[in-house]
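Problem 12. The chain below contains 373 residues. Write out its predicted structure in token notation.
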Amino acid sequence: MPVQTPPIGGHVVIPKPALQQVFDALREAGYTLIGPTVDSGAIVYEEVAKVADLPVGWTDDHSPGQYRLRARGDRRHFGFVVGPQAWKRYLYPPTLRLFTARRTEKGFEISQDGQAPRYAFIGVRGCDMAAIGVQDRVFLEGPAHDPSYRARREAAFILAVNCTEPGGTCFCASMKTGPRCGPGFDLALTELEEIFLFEVGSELGAQMLAGVQWRAAGAFEMNQARRALTEAEGRMGRRMDTRDLPDLLYENLEHSRWDDVARRCLSCANCTMVCPTCFCSDVREVSDLTGGVTGRERVWDSCFNREFSYVFGGHLRPNTRARYRQWLTHKLASWIDQFGTSGCVGCGRCITWCPVGIDLTEELTAIRGEVRA
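Solution.
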């Protein structure tokens, strides 16, 4: 019997144990699987090989400045939200060697990193799908392209997950980035009681299902998935009023709320490190002890670091008030002017992982002069 692949754009159903066959097909195709797993009391993205490596039966509770894992009491494979990491660490690594120079008798030999790794990202949520789309605009559109990002992005396979478990700091529904995954995935699944409902997004995604016993989804499964996503949209832990955000922020650069948040903010840069779209970086020269080998590295940086805004003659943003205002105004206003989209996707990581629990949705509400219910 010939192998059948589902149609692109089609919806198919597989039993839950068959997800391992999808994993096996990806590994046989040469991909390293990166997916959610439990480590050090959090759900993180690391290399996985088996479905058993996923946080089956676990969920995570989010609130400002707090994160806890707890057992769900069932066997859900994707019954959690997002942890402290974002997928950008694999597409835009925290440290990237740009080139290496080795001293020889004739001078220096220059070498660059080799072929981009082939990653299959397992469990990308709608907010993170949108974040990857934002970084695509930053690094792949316009007059300057990032060759390392392009190579990693083109080599990546994305198995996305429609989110039916919003967290206490999520507001993707306000940002129109979830809970349903937007375009760009190869496969997207919705977890139901005994099955996974797959949507096929690419020819490559269809090929990964070719060896699996799938069947076309029926009206009952499609309705179950729609109902679960609609309910998730109504259970968001946060909301953000996105009306005229650029004008709101540009017209309130001297608002007293900036002083209030500056008294609480530690300038620790946690929010920018966990953010799936922030891309500030620095370039540094490194060498061995002998000076025979030297190299140039790109490393993550943050607009919350005082030295980041240093220019000849002084600092452009010398205090925490100025740096927090720069971050929030860029994220929700000038980013739109630069790239045609907001830099925020509503994942809520910056709220959860802020040590003092600063909530950007609360800050915007205060600037609007509204009283939060």
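Discussion. The mean pLDDT is 93. Students who got a different answer should revisit the alignment rule from Section 12.3.
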